[in-house]
Fold this protein.
Amino acid sequence: MSDAYIALADGRVLEARARAPGRTRGELVFTTAYTGYEESLTDPSYAEQVLTFSYPLIGNYGVRTERFESESVQPRAAVARELTDDVAEWLEDEGVPAIDHLDTREIVTTVREEGAMACGIAAGPDATPEDAVEEMEACVPMSDHVDIGAQVSVSEPTVYEGGGAADIALLDCGAKGSIISSLTERGADVHVLPYDATPADVAAVEPDVLFVSNGPGDPENFVAAHEVVDEFAGDLPMAGICLGQQVITSALGGSTEKMAFGHRGVNQPVKDLRTDKVVMTTQNHGYTVDDTGPLDVTQVNVNDDTVEGLDNEELEIITRQYHPEANPGPHDSLGFFDEVMDLAQSTPHVTAD
């Protein structure tokens, strides 16, 4: 007899096995990654989402905290064909519902055909299909999570020292830990600021580069980050990853749009329009740049031609939609961080009054 249920917005309720008990709801998405489940489950970009793994066995190499991208599990729930005991116990300890023993191929196909959708989960000995439906009906669209940044950002400025080669002000909209370490490994001191930092907060750092991180939800809801970008555009070099690309573009007059089911996995091919070289990338996003504003498209997704890279030499801006730090891989695009360091060391920039 089943002890877990997932209710989909299309009206179906699927039976499953409870691996970590609880009730929850969120936007149903999937990842095609076959490794990196620890990184995915701790990626802040999955906040308010229910993460389905398309790879059938999750947990085959255990759980190691040194692979975590944040201090806790970020999705509202995890769904898999089969979860090992290690992962199931970790999720239960974190208080995150988890279910398995269901056809994840059906879920992935549904999301691909109908788009990311609301879902509800009820797991445990007393769970009922009605519980899952009740959760699904209470699910809030991602665009309505207007202050989602508060869930994933630091509350106070934090400095990670890398040797003083550059000072980088990083707006933490849900930054992965490996982004910070990719910069400190290159000698930068990274000043991590809350997602709602003011222009004065940024100026106080006297940075060489403003860096807007990845994060969850609709980029239009990160109003404070838009204001910071608008304030320093043309005066301070800027870089952004994932949501950071979207925020920078929108703040400069461009626009973004929600994708049907997004890009989530470690095998997304990206073509550089300047070199015709194609690299494989790690991605996790449900929104994309529609109108690039003053920024030039330098890279596109081979599968669907969505914008993957933007530059503007005059404004000293470089952004990427994918994750160049790419833990657990591939590492084809790590050179992006060298470009950020080149920006930082180009000319003197903003200082505090």
